């Protein structure tokens, strides 16, 4: 199998500050790669380069055999990379259907006038969420009235519905309670079963070990090590996150 | 499997969402009973009263329709008070300049000039807010002053009275028995309702009010969207000015100033929230009717007219309280 994403020699400088340098890793279809690291390690900087928000100072990003290094966010999303930021980018006052379709709404005609097809979009949202194990009793309810885990599931549903091949999640469980964290972990499993590649950003050890197929640890802008969960321990990951770069 | 939690306050929820309808019914009942007891006549079922309330509500509504769109997007437009005045003066001056020989041609040109003046204010507002990141409260307060000054300067500080049969008919005529200003307000309300509820434009407006990142992520050009919103707000306010010039056969810089408070109040009574993301055109229509009923009802019942300020002020306070308790009940898990 070929990797869905390859990151080669990626570096980012903000003026005189080097946020990250020489970052190399890849992601295979159906694999969850965790980017672990302490605050300020450069995790968000790396994924913002992949999603097209930041231009890399050096290096290459290859997705599905295609060089997307300097592509803007829209292009990156259209080729199949969905990024779920910490705030989820949901419109809280709209229903799940409208959130699913925001920017690509389904329309219909009533007396010749184009109008939003809310019912069709709601039905699609119910369908996709059902596939993720989430029941929606009231498809017209606003996203605001849903729990944190369910809101996360809508952001993930959006990725699935638009057939993303790679989903990037920036600390998806950071603001959630324990049961909701489990829900999100279950969602990640479902995405993997669908063959979607995942980059998960986290500095929460239980999450890292629950979700990861491979762990890349970033410390002060460089990757200090690559580990498989079965071959490492909590202590080692913490040590790497603290910046111990010597492989032992 | 997990369910999307339905919180159990559905009755309170419905009540809080429909309070403006209830409130309207309540004040109508109040004035009706008052009229029956005091004068033995009816308040509601008299054509003259209905028409007076409808015309007053229309004048408020023309300022608050576009404003509703701006408020749903999480902004405010205070300049509408003098956008109305500027459009009214621009229309009147055009008629005066061109004379009234070619009635309908002059009328059409005057209407266009009035709208153009309004659009300019809207473009400036949009540019300030979208491209210079000026908070809309401050930015539109600035253009409020500028529009006021310009209108007063070009009008020479006076009311510009004109003599034009077409302009007079525009403000005082009727279509199928409905006064033209009311027809204008209804048509524009219908258009704005369609825009806000049934189109992508409306959905992006709501989403923008809730979370700017959600709209940006969707690939919408937020800056252009903001400009369009402020232009629409200026346009409906400008049309309010044209109607004013029609009704009084005169343009005045302060045509919209006395109703700014009412226009803003109508939007918030109608269910909009200062934090954005909420509000409907139907709500704003109800809000405008409530204020018009209070205004007319107080005059009708012979109280000194100053009481209307107190009454409208009270309704605004109630509207804000309702908005806050609604947040508590509908906030859900966040
Ligand atoms: N736009 C920017 N301009 C200047 N410096 C930046 C910018 N973005 C990030 N940095 C710097 O780059 C470094 C890495 O930041 P980044 O946000 O990638 O860390 P992170 O690993 O995501 O941290 P956290 O866990 O707190 O989210 C930090 O020192 C940060 O101050
Ligand atoms: Mg970060």
Q: Quick gist of this model?
A:
The complex is a heterodimer of chains A (248) and B (334). With 248 residues, chain A is α/β, with parallel strands linked by helices.
Give a description of the structure.
- The complex is a heterodimer of chains A (248) and B (334).
- Chain A is built from 8 helices and 13 strands.
- A 6-stranded mixed β-sheet of chain A has the order 6-10-11-3-12-13, sandwiched between helices. In chain A, strands 2-1-4-5 form a 4-stranded antiparallel β-sheet, covered by helices on one side. In chain A, strands 7-8 form a two-stranded antiparallel ribbon.
- In chain A, α5 (148-161) runs parallel beside α6.
- In chain A, β7 and β8 (113-116) form a beta hairpin.
- The longest helix of chain A is centred in the last third of the chain and has 16 residues, at 178-193.
- Chain A folds into 2 domains: 1-80 and 165-248, Rossmann fold, CATH 3.40.50.300; 95-163, no CATH class.
- Chain A starts with a strand and ends in a 7-residue tail after the last helix.
- Chain A has helices at residues 43-50, 73-79, 96-101, 118-131, 148-161, 178-193, 205-211, 234-241; strands spanning 5-14, 17-27, 32-37, 58-63, 66-67, 81-84, 107-110, 113-116, 134-135, 166-170, 197-202, 214-219, 222-227.
- Helices cover 32% and strands 29% of the residues of chain A.
- Chain B has 14 helices and 5 strands.
- Helices cover 74% and strands 3% of the residues of chain B.
- In chain B, α3 (47-72) runs antiparallel to α11 (222-248).
- Chain B has helices spanning 10-17, 19-39, 47-72, 80-98, 103-130, 136-154, 165-172, 180-198, 200-210, 212-217, 222-248, 260-269, 281-300, 307-330, and strands spanning 2-3, 160-161, 174-175, 178-179, 250-251.
- Chains A and B meet through α2, β8, β9 and α5 of A and β1, α9 and α10 of B.
- β9 of chain A pairs parallel with β1 (2-3) of chain B.
- Bound molecules: adenosine-5'-triphosphate and magnesium ion (MG).
- Adenosine-5'-triphosphate binds at residues 14, 17, 19, 37, 39-45 of chain A.
- Chain A: Pfam families: ABC_tran.
């Amino acid at each position: 199998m070929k990797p869905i994403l390859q990151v080669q020699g990626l570096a980012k400088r903000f003026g005189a500050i080097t946020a990250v340098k020489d970052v190399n890793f890849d992601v295979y279809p159906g694999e969850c790669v965790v980017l672990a690291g302490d605050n300020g390690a450069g995790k968000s900087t790396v994924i913002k380069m992949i999603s097209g928000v930041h231009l890399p100072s050096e290096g290459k990003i290859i997705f599905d055999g295609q060089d997307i290094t300097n592509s803007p966010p829209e292009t990156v999303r259209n080729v199949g990379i969905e990024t779920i930021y910490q705030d989820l980018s949901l419109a809280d006052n709209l229903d799940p259907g409208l959130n699913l379709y925001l920017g690509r709404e389904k329309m219909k005609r009533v007396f010749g006038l184009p109008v939003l097809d809310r019912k069709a979009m709601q039905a699609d949202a119910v369908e996709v969420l059902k596939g993720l194990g989430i029941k929606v009793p009231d498809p017209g309810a606003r996203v605001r009235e849903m729990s944190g885990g369910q809101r996360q599931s809508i952001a993930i549903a959006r990725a699935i519905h638009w057939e993303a091949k790679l989903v990037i999640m920036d600390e998806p469980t950071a603001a959630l309670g324990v049961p909701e964290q489990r829900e999100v972990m279950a969602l990640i499993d479902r995405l993997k079963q669908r063959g979607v590649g995942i980059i998960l950003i986290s500095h929460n050890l239980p999450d890292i070990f629950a979700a990861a197929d491979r762990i890349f640890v970033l410390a002060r802008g460089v990757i200090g090590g690559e580990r498989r969960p079965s071959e490492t321990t909590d202590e080692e990951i913490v040590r790497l996150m603290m910046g111990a770069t010597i492989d032992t | 499997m997990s369910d999307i939690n339905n919180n159990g306050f559905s009755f309170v929820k419905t009540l809080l969402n429909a309070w403006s309808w209830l409130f309207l019914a309540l004040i109508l009942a109040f004035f009706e009973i008052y009229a029956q007891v005091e004068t033995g006549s009816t308040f509601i079922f008299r054509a003259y009263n209905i028409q007076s309330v409808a015309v007053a509500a229309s004048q408020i509504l023309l300022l608050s329709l576009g404003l509703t769109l701006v408020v749903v997007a999480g902004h405010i437009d205070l300049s509408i008070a003098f956008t109305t005045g500027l459009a009214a003066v621009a229309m009147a001056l055009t008629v005066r300049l061109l004379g009234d020989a070619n009635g309908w041609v002059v009328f059409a040109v005057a209407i266009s000039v009035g709208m153009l003046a309004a659009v300019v204010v809207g473009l400036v507002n949009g540019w300030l807010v979208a491209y210079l990141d000026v908070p809309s409260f401050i930015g539109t307060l600035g253009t409020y002053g500028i529009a006021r000054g310009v209108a007063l300067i070009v009008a020479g500080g006076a009311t510009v009275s004109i003599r034009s049969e077409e302009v007079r008919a525009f403000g005082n005529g009727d279509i199928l028995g409905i006064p033209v200003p009311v027809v204008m307000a209804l048509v524009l309300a219908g258009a704005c309702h369609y825009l806000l509820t049934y189109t992508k434009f409306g959905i992006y407006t709501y989403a923008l009010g809730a979370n700017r990142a959600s709209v940006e992520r969707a690939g919408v050009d937020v800056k252009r969207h903001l400009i369009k919103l402020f232009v629409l707000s200026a346009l409906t306010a400008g049309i309010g000015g044209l109607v004013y010039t029609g009704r009084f056969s005169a343009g005045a810089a302060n045509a919209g100033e006395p109703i700014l408070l009412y226009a803003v109040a109508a939007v918030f009574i109608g269910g909009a929230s200062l934090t954005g993301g909420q509000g409907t055109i139907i709500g704003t229509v109800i809000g405008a009717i409530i204020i018009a009923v209070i205004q007319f009802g107080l005059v009708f019942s012979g109280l000194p007219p100053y009481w209307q300020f107190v009454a409208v002020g009270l309704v605004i306070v109630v509207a804000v309280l309702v908005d806050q308790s609604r947040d508590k009940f509908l906030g859900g898990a966040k």
